[in-house]
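Revision sheet: structure tokens.
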Amino acid sequence: MKIVRNVSFVVGLSLVLWGCGRSHQNPHDIWQSATDDELMDAVQSQTFKYFWDFAETNSGLAPERYHPNGDYPLDDAHIITTGGTGFGVMAILVGIERSFITREEGIQRLMKIVEFLETADRFHGVWPHWLDGETGRVKPFSAKDDGADLVESSFLLQGLLCVRQYCDSKDPFEKELAARIDTLWREMEWNWFTSGTDNLYWHWSPNFGFEMDFALQGYNETLITHVLAASSPNHATDPSVYHNCWARNGAIKADDTFYGLDRVLDHYNDNDSPVGPLFWGCYSYMGLDPRKLEDAYGNYWELNRNQALMHYRYCIANPNGFEGYGETCWGMTSSYSPKKKGTIGYASHRPDRDIGVISPTGAIGVMPYTPKESLAAIRGFFTDYGDILVGPAGFYDAFRPGSGWVAPRYLAIDQGPIIVMIENHRTGLLWELFMSCPEVTEGLDRLGFKY
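Predicted:
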């Protein structure tokens, strides 16, 4: 079932820039004259295709990557990502609400996803980073990462809990879907991943145990993992884990500024970096509502807004003189990146690691914090770079303005924040669903949050 758009203007715009037809009007003029709502409709509807039309065929889950030209590395066309699927199930809820698909179609797909997750490899109730979409077996993400990935699983659960809350208890099929999600949630052994300490660890392997030794110390993308761990109905971590590990016994606080803005929190193992990649302000906050979120260490709305504005101000200042940077072209995050000899790799882009690469998901994923600036970027991406930057699932992952270089590929973890965070800006849909979970508010209370 292909996407059905419910806004005729969006169809007209998409026909021009997505190669489905022709128009006598200059595309530049079309996108400049489009309203903000029309722009957001167009971006959401086309980005939704990643999680609907291009989902892994057997499982219905989000593919790790989608290459329209088919040049998949390591024959991994059927490799799905658990974290990206968490963003994908949220996108399906947006698709239902925006009439890209019917509610029945969306719920049926969500049931297919949950049925696959029930039988897929889990370790102490926790999924790996990658799964084979045809068999449900773990595909190692790296040499020792062949078991549970607590962070990616927390992104997945964040989305599944939104689905659980969305389901209609009066509908037997939806009630069953909610109950099956609840069972998966209750089976996740969060406290196992402390290894008997006051730390929470990212990985556990049946072959290597906790050898990767990656404690979830902030500030980074892992706040949602600590919140869910403290919220678990059956296997909750002690609040001391949050305060000792995430907050580093108070050392997480920052008291300096960057581009005239308070940094609020500091980055563990990266103290020389003033600001992280923009996805740090997205992944934990796809469901966790940052608008009034505050604890003993900082205000998370101020944190994320300031981090987004630091990136924006940096790109306007453009100290390295990269072509194209400015008010309508900004946004650095982890994404595809150019490598030597014309190959494409993956890298984390931010002010102190700037090589001239802009990622649309960077500017768009922080839209709730910077709506004016993010919408200006969307308009600029369309009008100035639409001929190279727009493909079958919306904006390609990354490009170098002015150079002609573009990565004509997609990543689930970059596509998800585009559609979900636009929706949170517009309606707060996913924030309201996630924050309606009684376990989550109880967990936040245990950790001393105001929200």
